[in-house]
Amino acid sequence: MSARPPYPRSRRLRTALAASCAAILLAATGCSLGEPEPDPAGEPPNLPTPSATPGGGQEIVATVLAEGLRVPWGIAFLPDGGALVTERDSGRILQVGPESTTDGLKVTEVQTVDGVVATGEGGLLGIAVSPEFAQNRTVFVYYTAERDNRIARMRLGEEPTPILTGIPKAGVHNGGGLAFGPDGQLYASTGDAGETAQSQNVEQLGGKILRITPDGKPAPGNPFPNSPVWSLGHRNVQGIAWEGDRMYAVEFGQNTWDEINQIRKGENYGWPEVEGRGGDEKYVDPIVQWSTDEASCSGLAAVERMLATACLRGQRLWLVELTDTGAVLGQPQSLLTEQYGRLRAVAAAPDGSIWVSTSNHDGRGRPAPEDDRLLRLVFAGGGAGRS
């Protein structure tokens, strides 16, 4: 990939732990993550003290961890508590923390990934840290190349080695989610690349959730012989997460409904025959659906029987509480609405907080001078019971 000129001084990465905070009322039916553990650097987080709210509600505090990023897309945590963050358009991998400076967490450029071709919604997308990272320093990335989307394995600082190629690419609907499941296999979400017929064709990789080994082979136990396909009938899945052993995915609809689905082996989620709940027994209905103007969510994380999804067009974070059986409990709660603009990635941190990235430099937002930003969310009132 060709070298890019350095950012102007006013746009270089800046960390500002506790430089910008906002307390948002969470309805009494919401969830509590409790007081955070000390930061990995050894000191308690420098966060404002939440105050009590009327009517038994709870507050959340949003703290800016880093500023001046460019379309941060994926977040994956390292064993030491720091995080790797991808930038879609620059092709860079950044490390945020766990070290801190007098201004907050330290942000370091790790490398620019060779072979990334950033056009439209494509570029350097998802990132996953090997479960054996402490021994092999290996990470996995999902990125758009010249002719396809692909998944590659790499040691930090070295060139990527593609392990799965041929995922269809386009200016839109490139998917890009990447994460290790509880079973130790690597899962990836793909888009239909604007060709809707791919989603129902098991022989094609577009519009699917894939399950592969760390070597890129179809994982043992997959539902279709010699195939990496785990589920099909998707339009454009970017966020995937597990609550216990249950897998969930957030999906962009077309004009009417965006979805959260519980993902099961070999199931068909209906696109392009169905958008949202269709009532057809051949397809799995979503557990939650929203109109596209209040959702269009990209990232997904699971924390303590709760799903958190970060939304682009909707400019908010939705919280969805789950029952013991994985069903939805109560009404989803909307947070951060129009406070930080378009929200992209969301990840559950080792200390119990939630990290969220903005995406205001993606060509569809209105960036503020501080954008793009990385936020840390902490819920107050630890000890509050759950419904």
From TrEMBL:
<protein>
    <submittedName>
        <fullName>PQQ-dependent sugar dehydrogenase</fullName>
    </submittedName>
</protein>
<feature type="region of interest" description="Disordered">
    <location>
        <begin position="34"/>
        <end position="57"/>
    </location>
</feature>
<feature type="domain" description="Glucose/Sorbosone dehydrogenase">
    <location>
        <begin position="70"/>
        <end position="364"/>
    </location>
</feature>
<dbReference type="InterPro" id="IPR012938">
    <property type="entry name" value="Glc/Sorbosone_DH"/>
</dbReference>
<dbReference type="InterPro" id="IPR011041">
    <property type="entry name" value="Quinoprot_gluc/sorb_DH_b-prop"/>
</dbReference>
<keyword id="KW-0732">Signal</keyword>
<dbReference type="InterPro" id="IPR011042">
    <property type="entry name" value="6-blade_b-propeller_TolB-like"/>
</dbReference>
<feature type="compositionally biased region" description="Pro residues">
    <location>
        <begin position="39"/>
        <end position="48"/>
    </location>
</feature>
<dbReference type="Pfam" id="PF07995">
    <property type="entry name" value="GSDH"/>
</dbReference>
<feature type="signal peptide">
    <location>
        <begin position="1"/>
        <end position="27"/>
    </location>
</feature>
